[in-house]
Amino acid sequence: MMNGATERYRMAASRIPDRVLVVGLGASGASCVRFLAGLGKRVTVTDAKEKGALLPYLRTLDATAYTGRFGGHDRRDFLDHELIVVSPGITTDHPFLREARRNGARVIGEIELASTFIEEPIVAITGTNGKTTTTSLLGHVFKAAFGSVFVGGNIGDPLINYVTDGRRARYVIAEISSFQLETIETFRPHTSILLNITEDHLDRYASFAEYAAAKMRIFENQTPADQALLRADIPAGGKIKARQYYFSTGKSLDEGAFLEGDLLHVRLGHEGFTYRRDISSLVGVHNSENLLSVLLASHLYGIEKAIIEDAVRTFKGLAHRVEFVREVGGVRFYNDSKATNVDATKRAIESMKGDIVLIAGGKDKGGSYGFVTGLAERIRGLVLIGEAAARIEAELGPFVPTYGEASLDAAVGKAFRVAREGDSVLFSPMCSSFDMFENYKARGDAFKQIVEAL
């Protein structure tokens, strides 16, 4: 891999010490182990989980030299390394990490590690909701225009894989989470897109302000030569040095992108472009915001309108995001398992027509569930599952008829009985999946299988 490596690559590799600790063996952790071992570094990986729970990732390391410590962490590992690469699922407030930083260790994440080796322009997308849809759609447009484009990050293919595989692309488009932004140092996208910030992950952050500050770090290292795209109602203050562009579904803008009736407008300098909203099959105001950010970014990179229009028209929505499953007895079933916070569920309800029976619940993330103002009359019934059921019922029970069930299977059956012909059953949990399922995909797949069996 070092043969023919650029000067930037060689310099970045030379700054990595001979011994590195990787904390957390998820997808990005395993990718970091492979990359660092490929550089000739002595890598130790530690994970609190037992080896049996990590087999899918351990199998990817069969040809990799590393030292593994599983089933718990050893404090000495954290104090014996100058560089620690931490997976996003590990809180940076872990006592061993705090002590390591006091001892002089650098604690970074996979995004920071990867970006120091990447020369191509990076377009980074974050936000509480809509990141994956926007990243996928923007990647679809860029691929239509430029051909060679890498799409990854938090969306599934770790950014470090782009470096490890020696790939070359015109642009790198990456979904970035707040957890990943916690551990950046020099990460500097050429274009940063912040879609929205609403209450989420309050089981990890001390306050909403702390969570919002993590999101805002996407702009931290940008300069006036870079671009920052964000929703018009997000207060940026003087923290953003990059050239700012805004998008809005609520008001027209002299420069930027906005929704007006059934039309999407982009204004840049003396140029203006208009698109019909129905060129996209993505429904809801939230997806209009996602579309506006994609149109704005695409025009900033000089992509022709005809290419943008065709790419948007051919883009199919992603699974587990207000995904239509089937209609049974006049009742339509929708899988929105990716809705792991309250705002995502609120947006899903607003995007749908008619009355709804909502199935929700899962692992509580600490936020408020009081979102029903103006929406209660549309919710015919609320069927609850999982650890958060009691909390949700306490907040929403006074407003909508509420039922508790012990399993997703039973919840689907109850929702079907409560629904009337012409209604929709929406599975939009407002919570993470980890009390009952491995992840939101497994949860959504289970819902679809149950509905198909009705």
Entry keywords:
single chain; 454 residues; alpha/beta; Rossmann fold; UDP-N-acetylmuramoyl-L-alanine:D-glutamate ligase; 3 domains; six-stranded mixed sheet; 22% strand
Average pLDDT across residues?
Answer: 94
Show unreliable segments.
Answer: none
CATH homolog superfamily of the largest domain:
Mur-like, catalytic domain
CATH class of the largest domain: Alpha Beta
Order the strands across the largest sheet as they lie in space. Answer: 7-8-6-9-10-11-12-13-14
Structural class, by secondary structure, is alpha/beta
Number of domains: 3
Secondary structure: helix percent = 25-40%
- Helix tally equals 16
Short description:
By secondary structure, this protein is of the alpha/beta class. It has helices at residues 7-14, 27-38, 55-58, 75-79, 95-102, 110-115, 131-146, 159-164, 178-181, 208-216, 285-300, 305-314, 342-351, 389-396, 408-418, 440-452, and strands spanning 19-23, 42-47, 67-70, 83-86, 106-108, 122-126, 149-153, 171-175, 191-194, 227-231, 243-248, 256-260, 263-268, 271-276, 323-328, 331-335, 356-360, 379-384, 402-404, 424-427.
